[in-house]
Automatic annotation (TrEMBL):
This is Xylose isomerase-like TIM barrel domain-containing protein. SUPFAM superfamilies: Xylose isomerase-like. InterPro entries: Xyl_isomerase-like_sf (IPR036237). It comes from Thermodesulfatator atlanticus. Gene3D superfamilies: Divalent-metal-dependent TIM barrel enzymes.
Length: 335
């Protein structure tokens, strides 16, 4: 199993590269490299460390693909912004945008790629009531990927599909993966990328409001992960080739925020709408480290090829203690 660090090309992350701290940090924590989210041009200094590439994600894509112009005018930031978010005005432009994402990711020669199988509208981030059901999203994602990757040569890089708590691949129901794979025709070997925080969030959303009255602790979260995954058929667990390891404690926030939704839709500035939605997502999904628990039996259950420490941090001084806490959960110190 290769242990990796999740990194992006956001400037705060690139500071680790620019200051020469990335290599020593990886060595200090026995990490084999990084899983990179390329938001912009990838500097040469980071390329040697890339093992995986997390493809960008546009969560509000399905109304554009289905050409639901009324929704785009009323809820999304408006048709004048379509090119910025989808590469153009037509569904075909979105396919070209996706194709470009894949081409740039493959130029880094990664062992694997990660793609979100999900959809969530801006207002749904707050309401947690969703416009499209799982089957609609799963079918549409397969359709889009099949079209965008048509004609691509066969690839050696794995294409791993990540779970979220929004409609799509949540991993809460066993049929989701089979339904998706039956419709998928892509030139990649494929598998699942389990995000532990996202699976926790999906479980919180399913069980609210009856079960959780406050934040959960790591031991509770780990027990919940075991409960969900130990019941999965072995064939599904075998699809899990990678794990995004992070702790999501805010079970108590998974309720409808109607005031937040009202503020979002009342804003005239499209980027401000996105900012409000992003702040809500960050509160639900903080990407904290696990601490004080033994994660080894959990990882033995899954036996992933890649374990990615996907932690939110503001600086090297912030990241190092978080990494140390989570690494201790993988050793005798975590028991």
């Amino acid at each position: 199993m290769k242990e990796l660090l999740a990194l992006s090309t956001h400037q705060k992350d690139l500071t680790l590269v620019e200051e020469g701290a990335l290599g020593p940090l990886l060595e200090e924590f026995s990490l084999a490299g990084v899983e990179l989210l390329p938001l912009k041009e990838v500097p040469e200094g980071i390329r040697p460390f890339v093992c995986g590439v997390h493809l960008p994600f546009q969560p509000v894509w399905l109304p554009f693909w289905l050409e639901d112009r009324r929704y785009l005018r009323e809820v999304f930031p408006g048709e004048t912004n379509l090119a910025r978010f989808f590469g153009g005005e037509r569904p075909e432009d979105f396919l070209n945008l996706l194709k470009g994402w894949f081409e740039r990711a493959l130029s880094l020669k990664p062992a694997y790629l990660v793609f979100h199988v999900s959809h969530c509208g801006l207002e749904e981030v707050f309401s947690l009531r969703f416009r499209y059901d799982k089957k609609t999203v799963l079918q549409a994602v397969a359709e889009v990927l099949n079209a965008a990757l048509e004609g691509f040569p066969a690839q050696r890089s794995l294409l791993l599909f990540e779970n979220l708590w929004w409609p799509g691949l949540t991993l809460l129901e066993d049929w989701e993966a089979e339904y998706f794979w039956d419709r998928l025709r892509v030139p990649f070997p494929t598998g699942l990328l389990l995000d532990t925080g996202h699976l926790l969030n999906a479980s919180y959303l399913l069980r609210q409001p009856s079960m959780f009255r406050g934040p959960v602790y790591p031991a509770q979260a780990l027990s919940l992960l075991f409960e969900v995954l130990s019941k999965k058929p072995p064939s599904l667990r075998e699809l899990i080739k990678g794990v995004h390891l992070n702790f999501s404690p805010r079970a108590d926030l998974f309720f409808s925020d109607e005031e937040g939704k009202r503020r979002c839709l009342a804003a005239s500035d499209p980027l401000f709408r996105f900012r409000l939605a992003r702040e809500r997502v960050l509160s639900l999904d903080p990407h904290f480290p696990f601490y004080g628990v033994d994660l080894r039996p959990f990882l033995d259950l899954l036996a992933p090829d890649f374990l990615v420490h996907e932690l939110r941090f503001s600086s090297l001084a912030d990241l190092r203690p978080k990494l140390r806490l989570q690494k201790e959960c993988l050793s005798d110190h975590g028991s």
